[in-house]
Each structure stands twice: as C-alpha cells, then as structure tokens.
Design goal:
The protein has one helix at about 190-195; strands at about 5-10, 10-15, 20-25, 25-35, 40-45, 50-55, 60-65, 65-70, 95-115, 120-135, 145-150, 155-165, 170-180. It is mainly β and about 210 residues long. Strands 1, 2, 3, 4, 5, 6, 7, 8, 9, 10, 11, 12 and 13 form a 13-stranded mixed beta sheet that branches. Strand 11 (about 145-150) and strand 12 (about 155-165) form a beta hairpin. The chain is globular, with a radius of gyration of 22 Å.
Length: about 210
Amino acid sequence: VDLGGTLTLRTVSLDADGDVAVELLPTTIVVNRARTTTYDLESAVVSGLRAQATRLPGGVMRVAGLDFVGAPASVEDEAPVDEPEDPGAAPAASPSLRLKRLALENVELTFRDEALVEPQTLVTTVVAEVRSIVLDAASPGTPLELSATAAVEGTGSLGLSGTAVLTGDEISANLALSGSELTLGTVRPYLELAGLRSTLTSGAMAGD
C-alpha cells in the first residue's frame, strides 16, 4: 500500500518550569510515497523552531527541565549475548529514504551559560537547506547539496555551502565557509578554558 499527502504540525511546544524549552511553529512535510521500508518525500520544512538550554554553575547541562548528569558507572557490566541467526531466514529489506528538500527556516537557539565567571546568553539564528538526500543501499555515494547560515547575536555569522557524499565507500565533502562581522567577545571565555588567549581585534580567513 502506497501512502502520500501533506502532514502539517502547528504550534507544538514543551514548557518546563514556566519557560518554553522547545517550540515548533507550523511545519510541513510533503510525502510522495511511503511504504513499510520505502519513503519518497518531496519536502520537509521546519519553521520557527525555538529551543533553549542552560549550563548550570556546576557545568551540568539542563534542557527542558532535565539535568544531564551522566549515568553512573556499572561495576559489573554484563557482556551482550549474541542471538543465533536463522540460516533459513530471508534477509530483512534495507529501508530507503529519498528527500528532495529539507529546510530549516527561522530557527532560534538560546544557550545560557551560568558556569562562566561572567554568565552570558548566546542567541543563534539558523537557516539551512539540504537537497537530494538519498539513504538507499541500492544508490550509495549520491551527493547532496547543502547551504546553512548561523548568526550569533552580537558575534556575527558563519555560512557553509557546497556538496557532500555521506554514504558509500568514499565519504567526501566540497564545502565553502564564509563569515561576516565575526568577533571573539563571546567565544573568548571558552578559548581561555582551553588554555588559549587571543588579542585579535580583526582579521580574515579564506580557503578552498
């Protein structure tokens, strides 16, 4: 049975402690054909995504009211038991996904870092588009096209565009990186944590 049509999500949000941790404004997915293991999508457009995260004074990350403290180490980890394979069983069909266009529009990510000596908030706006996504064992090595821009409030913006091959025997990428009005003010505390100190006030970088 083939299924097709348009799926639209409208204003999905997750609140934690009175704050909106994740919010998703209208998102549309156009499906050309969908089967059990074959998915052929015309487009998926994610619009107006809002997400927040906080690094607490002790360094613990908090997202949607959950603190990521890490799982306790187990003293007696049991080795996984391999189930015997049935030689007469037919091999499972590999799933196939084809997506002509994936777009992120008007995405805003907010990160509050309270672990720094002077806490700061970074607000990043992201716009991205990926075309010709093919995840199919029958068509390995299919290149995809991508373009993305991330602008950090008060820091400048970075852009990335080009092509990439993420499947097959040879993984490769041909990407161009660009920047505009970049400053080091917001990233300087993280450079210092890594043992680096910068007195750079301006500069340029280019590469192929």
